[in-house]
UniProtKB/TrEMBL annotation:
Signal peptide range: none
Protein name, as recorded: Putative ABC transport system ATP-binding protein
Organism: Microbacterium halimionae
SUPFAM superfamilies for the chain: P-loop containing nucleoside triphosphate hydrolases
Keyword Membrane: no
GO molecular function annotation: ATP binding; ATP hydrolysis activity; transmembrane transporter activity
GO CC field: membrane protein complex; plasma membrane
Any one Pfam family match given in the protein's UniProt record, by short name: ABC_tran
Amino acid sequence: MSIVDTASAYRIKGVTKTYQQKGRVVNALTGVDIDIAQGDFVTIQGPTGGGKSTFLQLLGALERPTKGEVMLGDTDIAKASNADLGKVRAHEIGFVFQGFNLIPTLTAAENVDMGLEPLGLAKEERAKRVAEALMRVGLEERGDHRPGELSGGQQQRVAIARAIAKRPRVLLADEPTGNLDESMRDEILVVLEELNAEGLTLIMVTHDSAVARRAKRRLRLEKGTVRDITK
Ligand code: ADP
Ligand code: MG
């Protein structure tokens, strides 16, 4: 008999996140317990204010929980030093946002290269990774274009190239197709699904049920609590 051992990308236990907002306490997350397997494709749905972005920020080591444990591999994001969190963000986590967040004065290749800045790679290795990442998202011919010369779908593909050039373990995406029409949305999903098929753990916030249906696992975050709604 074989024992199936699915390694976890994240193990999250008893996580709460509280913010102070104008003297008022806001409970963004209230007791979240969940494991996310390596190589999974997870979507997170839920109403505005439900805690989705907060949850992604914890997963991305951009924030620490108020209480509880967020284990990314062997690193506890609650307890790690700021320097270690910086390393985790630089090496292990790619981020993609709804608004692309590209620098308008830089070319596509220069934007991708910027994502490699914290890794301290040699110039040749950087150039190689930029070219590879642009090819991976089908934009090898567009490296010298500025964001303003690209469609929304192409801009988001540049942002994905920037996120994967560092070869992260996890890609976190906050409404990555929220600003795109249907055909561009599909072009982004195909790229993300291919990356997931190659082993990248993909965790995506979306309002779009058509997007969520393509995930392997669906979560719903409401009033600071996570529920698994995979059917
Ligand atoms: P969602 O992404 O699902 O819309 P958020 O995680 O952005 O939800 O927000 C959850 C709750 O936490 C909201 O009430 C929001 O106002 C609050 N919140 C989020 N970030 C902060 C912050 N940096 N400071 C204060 N309150 C915040
Ligand atoms: Mg949000």
